[in-house]
Each structure stands twice: as structure tokens, then as C-alpha cells.
Inverse folding.
């Protein structure tokens, strides 16, 4: 056989195999490049709160109410309730044995209060139980959560709320027509207990209008509004170290409660200088009080107190709200919502730099599009991205900090950024993928 012929055939076969291999190689890499596994998320608005946590101290003007007897006391109004001048607030008894009876009276008063809040509107019986069932579920899981956290005082409050909602459900579904029989029974027990409080008694009246509180802590003459007028950082730390003054009898009379004759009160707490710089005097912030079942009140920043020498700083807030049931324990935790930013929440690894422009790759149909972003801040491995395009408003030379010599370079930079569109709501942001490029197409 002709060797030259065999050689030509061999070369032809090898060339064919090589060509086919090259074709398969190109196809494989083309397909690999265009079928990269990617993950996306939808650009939606999220929010992030900047919270300052501290231990605060309550300052307010209060004065004592006195009784001629130092036995048991039956309070006629709730803590924090507003009273007028010469209004009956309590009855005190000379009989010391009345303490246990008074404790039973307090329990009955609490049950009556629950019944008062368990009523439903006239048309409620014709509605479904969807809303009340949702509240029952919420309080149930809240109780479990607070038990797990060891917040037992919170559990008591939540349990009352759960009972109120369960009572309402019984009224709506018709399982219970009313609670008049139960109320009558409780009122009867109350009357019997009151009759057992033998001996001398005295009715206590408010001497001024204001807000009544039964609890006395001995700091009423220490943490006053007057003490805030020229308060220094050193003064504050001296006050919180000071032991409460003994609650003394005056003219043979015993303090049984107090009146706050001003609805404005103050809370003061230490704060680091960095956090203080982010606060604005006379601005109103939201304050959360964990000890008060996370009650949220509006607080106005009155002033920031600093040391001339040293880093210690104080924040002084005022509050004009006095919600029912709020516990004014002298020292308690507080959380100030210093700021709240809203924007698109994007994982850090999704952010890329293309042509000196910071942005993300998005998927529109099967096409990859690079879009600009403006990062507001970083938190928990994510960026919060502004929903507004900063280039919508063209900055002036003075805003850019440029002069006539540098204006051309600033215009060039802005023009380069404008070649890429800005991220929009509901865009599909690519959060994983390799060798991504603007304009590439997936099949």
C-alpha cells in the first residue's frame, strides 16, 4: 500500500479529530459562560434602626401625701391616674392586721379591672373572631417568649391581656352573655373585706392636681427638676451613688403616696461622645422602655452635658407623655432610636466595581445589566442602598468642592457614572455568579 497515501489519510483523520475537539472545546466554554449558575434577589425596601442603649434615671417633681395612720391602705385610684384638687385617692386604716385584707382587695380590684376591659361593642357579636384570635395568639407566644427570657413581671401583664382577649372571644361567640354575675360576686367579696377592716380610718385627699403614684422610693427629693438646672457630669454620678433618703414621718403622719404636679418628666443617662454627636438638640426621638413592656414614648433631647476635662457625657431628654400603667422605676433601661435608614438591603458580596463605578449586576429577562448604587451604610454583612439616584440632582461646583480648573474632570466622572442606570425597586439583583459582564446573555 502506498505509504504516502496512508500518511495523508492519517493526517486527515488527526486533523478532523483535532478540529472536532476544538469545536467541542469552544462550544463547551461558550455554553459554560452563558449558563453560569446564578442566584438573584429582588431589590425591596428595608429599614435599619440605629439604637442607643443605656441605663437611664428619671427626674420629676413630686411631693408626698400623708396619713395619720400607718396601718394598711386601700387605694381608690390607679397609679399614674390624673387627679384633681381635693379628690379622694385612698383610705388608710389604723389596724395593721388589715394588710392581708388589703392584699386581697388589690387582687379583686385587678380582676374587676380585667372585666372592665373585657367588654365588647354592640356590633361585635355579629363579627367573626379573626382579630381577637390573632391577639390571643400574639399574647400566648409573647408569654412563652418572656418566660424563656426570665421577664416574669412582663408575664403577669401579658397574662392579663390574654385573659381580656379570651373573655372578649366568649362574648363574641355567645359562650358568655355577660360577666355581671362574676362582677357582682367580686363586688360582694370586696364589701365583706372592707367591713373586716375594723378600727379607725382616714380618707386621703389630693392637695393639688396632678398624677398620683402609690410607690415611694425615697429619691423624690433627690432626682428633681431643680437638680437638673445646673447639673454637671460629676453631680449626676454623685446623685446616682447617693442612698435614698429615709421616708420620714411629718408631724406624726406617714407618707402613703405622692403626687407629680407636672406632666413633664425627664430621663438622664450616660452616653459616649460618638453617639452624642449623632443627636440633635431639641429634636424629638422615639424611646423604648423594655422594663415597661417595650412601651415607646416620644422624647425631646433637651441638652447634652459634657466634661471640660474627660470623656464622660450625659444626654437629658424630656417627656410629656404619662401613659396609664407606666412604671416610673427610678433607674431603668432605655433604648433611643437615634436614626432610621430605609433602602435596598443587598449582600456585600453582590457589590462590584466596574469602570470605577460601584454597583451590582441585575438580570433583566436573560440579559445581565450593571446598575449603579449609592451605599448609605453597612450592617450585618449587608449594605443599605439609597432608593434615590444621587445623580438626579446635578451638584454645583461649590457642592462638588471644585473650581474652574477641576470642573472638567468632575464632569467626566459624572458622565462615566451616567453610562450605567441606577438600581430600581424590584430589580433582580444577582448575588452569585462568575465572570459576569454587562450585556451578557443567558440561554
Amino acid at each position: 500500500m502506498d505509504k504516502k497515501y496512508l500518511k495523508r489519510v492519517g493526517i486527515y483523520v488527526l486533523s478532523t479529530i483535532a478540529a472536532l475537539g476544538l469545536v467541542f472545546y469552544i462550544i463547551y466554554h461558550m455554553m459554560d459562560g452563558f449558563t453560569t449558575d446564578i442566584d438573584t434577589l429582588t431589590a425591596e425596601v428595608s429599614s435599619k434602626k440605629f439604637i442607643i442603649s443605656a441605663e437611664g434615671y428619671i427626674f420629676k417633681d413630686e411631693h408626698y401625701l400623708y396619713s395619720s395612720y400607718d396601718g394598711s391602705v386601700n387605694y381608690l385610684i390607679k397609679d399614674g391616674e390624673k387627679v384633681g384638687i381635693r379628690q379622694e385617692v385612698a383610705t388608710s386604716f389604723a389596724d395593721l392586721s388589715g394588710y392581708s385584707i388589703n392584699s386581697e382587695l388589690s387582687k379583686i380590684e385587678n380582676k374587676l379591672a380585667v372585666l372592665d376591659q373585657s367588654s365588647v361593642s354592640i356590633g361585635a357579636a355579629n363579627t367573626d373572631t379573626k382579630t381577637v384570635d390573632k391577639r390571643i395568639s400574639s399574647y400566648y407566644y409573647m408569654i412563652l417568649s418572656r418566660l424563656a427570657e426570665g421577664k416574669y413581671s412582663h408575664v403577669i401583664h401579658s397574662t392579663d391581656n390574654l385573659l381580656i382577649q379570651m373573655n372578649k372571644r366568649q362574648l363574641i361567640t355567645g359562650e358568655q352573655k355577660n360577666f355581671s354575675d362574676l362582677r357582682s360576686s367580686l363586688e360582694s367579696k370586696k364589701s365583706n373585706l372592707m367591713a373586716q377592716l375594723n378600727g379607725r380610718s382616714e380618707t386621703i385627699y389630693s392637695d393639688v392636681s396632678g398624677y398620683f403614684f402609690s410607690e415611694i422610693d425615697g429619691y423624690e427629693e433627690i432626682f428633681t427638676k431643680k437638680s437638673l438646672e445646673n447639673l454637671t457630669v460629676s453631680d449626676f454620678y454623685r446623685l446616682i451613688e447617693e442612698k435614698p433618703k429615709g421616708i420620714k414621718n411629718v408631724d406624726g403622719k406617714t407618707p402613703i403616696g405622692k403626687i407629680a404636679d407636672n406632666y413633664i418628666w425627664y430621663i438622664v443617662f450616660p452616653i459616649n461622645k460618638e453617639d452624642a454627636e449623632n443627636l440633635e438638640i431639641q429634636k424629638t426621638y422615639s424611646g423604648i422602655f423594655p422594663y415597661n413592656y417595650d412601651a415607646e414614648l416620644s422624647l425631646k433631647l433637651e441638652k447634652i452635658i459634657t466634661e471640660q476635662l474627660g470623656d464622660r457625657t450625659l444626654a437629658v431628654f424630656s417627656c410629656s407623655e404619662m401613659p396609664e400603667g407606666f412604671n416610673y422605676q427610678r433607674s431603668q433601661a432605655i433604648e433611643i432610636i437615634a436614626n432610621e435608614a430605609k433602602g435596598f438591603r443587598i449582600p456585600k458580596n453582590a457589590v462590584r466595581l466596574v469602570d470605577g463605578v460601584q454597583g451590582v449586576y441585575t438580570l433583566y429577562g436573560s440579559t445581565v445589566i450593571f446598575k449603579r448604587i449609592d451605599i448609605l451604610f453597612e450592617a450585618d454583612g449587608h449594605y443599605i442602598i439609597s432608593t434615590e439616584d444621587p445623580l438626579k440632582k446635578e451638584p454645583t461646583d461649590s457642592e462638588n468642592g471644585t473650581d474652574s480648573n477641576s470642573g472638567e474632570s468632575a464632569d467626566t466622572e459624572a458622565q462615566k457614572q451616567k453610562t450605567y442606570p441606577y438600581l430600581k425597586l424590584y430589580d433582580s439583583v444577582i448575588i452569585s455568579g462568575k465572570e459576569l459582564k454587562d450585556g451578557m446573555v443567558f440561554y
The longest strand covers residues 331-347.
